[in-house]
Amino acid sequence: MDEGEPTILLTNDDGIETAGFRALYDALTDVGDVIAVAPDSDQSAVGRALSESVTVTDHELGYAVAGTPADCVVAGVEALVPDVDLVVAGCNDGANLGAYVLGRSGTVSAAVEAAFFGVPAIAVSMYIPVREDITFESISAEYDAYSEATRAAAYLAEHALGAGVFDHADYLNVNAPMAGGEYGPLEDGEHAPLAITEPSKVYQMDAVRDGEQVQLYDRIWERMAEGDIPDANGTDRRAVVDGKISVSPLAVPHTSEHHEALDALAETYPV
User: Fold this and answer.
1) Which sites bind a divalent metal cation (predicted)?
2) Burial of 188 by CB count in 10 Å (0-12 exposed, 13-18 middle, 19+ buried)?
3) Backbone phi and psi for residue 3, each to the nearest 5 degrees, phi listed first
4) Side-chain half-sphere of 201: how many Cα atoms within 13 Å?
5) Domain span at residue 191?
6) Whether pTM exceeds 0.90
7) pLDDT tens digits, one per residue of 72-108
8) CATH code (residue 111)
9) Which of 108, 185, 206, 244 has minimal CB crowding within 10 Å?
């Protein structure tokens, strides 16, 4: 590694053997010294779940961990990769858009875990539209489909630290459209611009009961595929649907404000 290049811990929640992970690993090697510390199997949507101990196995890219993305960050920062400059999580198969996914996504949760260690982090995801003419699995396995996401991630990994971005944000949540081609919003050879966004507050989870079963639906994905979404300009979801790369600068921990109503309840609590 050249002097001055960052040490990058790369993790994800889809597993270390996925196409998106390898695409991001390859892109980041042009930026710094990349060491993989990633789950050995799919850990999608586990949030910040933690284990008491994990088994770590040597891997050609670094380390495969029998654990969650948060496990990988804790083990990586504290035991496996000393002097980490940046944690990158991804590239996720599918977008992580909207405020409600921030605590649900294993990819985003890895970035949050890094932020609690004081290590800057970037979560990277690629939006895959769900339509009758496209299968999620066919796109998620396609290495070249991730090129817009990995291009943006490499740019941010190279420049954000020196530009002072992390003086103001703990982590970045990056969501990109698929690269140009038959299904993506971009033409072949066209690159998406970066858009600085905030997570959308739109929430359209639904549940339908059928006897003993209750089916859970996230209705926003159906609307996204048609481009018919209620999200305002400046939000992450709107940017991605419009063919842009969404970059949301975010902070931890979650914060709250004191207010008179709760203060009054505390004062009248019987003891």
Assistant:
1) 13-14, 44, 92
2) exposed
3) -60, 135
4) 1
5) 7-201+230-267
6) yes
7) 999 999 999 989 999 999 999 999 999 999 999 999 9
8) 3.40.1210.10
9) 206
